[in-house]
């Protein structure tokens, strides 16, 4: 009887340590010099990481590019939302499942072992997207951890729209999503109030898309902070994007970041989609037709849990994307100049263990942690970022999902 169900031999677990990883019952049981295994993989000194965690994406909208024409490209955020509504009116379960399945398979091949997807819940599509993704969540339960956030793409203040959100939660959505920006002016705070009511009603966490523009006058983040404190939701709120923070005066931004830290508010960044978003050009000193990324380094420096997601994949809002977290990391470190060793370490944590913390998964290359592991094509973290984005080996719950040992051999020749 061998000691382990799987042993990864000669795994680089940090910049200076090569070791073996022994796995049993879906957990990392031992790290050290090991013998005896039902199955073994020789990593040949390649870097191992916890599986990538895609903390923010839209599986139900992915691959809508196939339904678009050239004149649909390059529009503003608001124009994109109108186009989405038009395309979504012809949604079917089979269509959503087909497009989302293709995306999930690509994510798996790129080393993503856990996903939080925002799923549209609105009068245009009803709860068809949630029902479709619940099927896929069950189908992929042994290959990927999938968490569904009910996402009110067209708002939630209207009673009919709130009823749909409640139905989505009752069907099995895991998280209450939010998008205050889509409400009519003056209803953004009401949107937040309803989100917190739903989160309390169903005992769920919140993941709210806020401040997608560079205009700090439209910032709803201070209201999220205020509501989080009032409702005693410390540690249960995530904000995605928070781009307006980058345009605030530094001292004001520092004040807000300290408030977020005290309330343990998580932040998700989606670098590529954030950078590409366009807005109408208006003769206004505060309005910019181009976008940016939030103050990632300041958030990181203050100990805030920052995670990363691909956001949209081949759809109306972002017509590109190959489901690669390495591509997103490259965009992140380039756009925010995270080029020191500490920041590179931090960026990779955002795509792995930080995202896992957000989803409540016990990730890390340490004894007792979940055996969701990728063997990368790199010998260092910079090497990983400079790779061709292939992941030679993906392991989920101690089971090998994919393995190409030729990648290791070629790398060492």
List keywords for this structure.
single chain; 413 residues; alpha/beta; Urease, subunit C, domain 1; TIM Barrel; 2 domains; four-stranded mixed β-sheet; 16 strands; 21% strand; globular; Metallo-hydrolase_Enzymes; hydrolase; Metal-dep_hydrolase_composite; hydrolase activity, acting on carbon-nitrogen (but not peptide) bonds, in cyclic amidines; Metal_Hydrolase
Quick overview of this protein structure:
By secondary structure, the protein is α/β, with parallel strands linked by helices.
Tell me about this structure.
This protein is of the alpha/beta class and 413 residues long. The chain has two domains: 4-50 and 364-412, Roll (Urease, subunit C, domain 1); 68-359, TIM Barrel, CATH 3.20.20.140. The protein is 35% helix and 21% strand. The protein is built from 14 helices and 16 strands. It has helices spanning 77-88, 93-109, 128-139, 159-171, 188-202, 221-230, 250-262, 271-276, 296-301, 325-335, 341-350, 353-359, 381-385, 405-412; strands at 4-12, 18-24, 27-32, 37-42, 48-50, 52-57, 112-120, 145-151, 175-178, 205-210, 237-241, 266-269, 306-308, 373-375, 393-396, 399-403. The protein has an eight-stranded parallel beta sheet, sandwiched between helices. Strand 2 and strand 3 form a beta hairpin. Helix 5 (188-202) packs parallel to helix 6 (221-230). The longest helix has 17 residues, at 93-109. The radius of gyration is 21 Å and the shape is globular. The two termini are 35 Å apart. The model has no long low-confidence stretch (mean pLDDT 92).
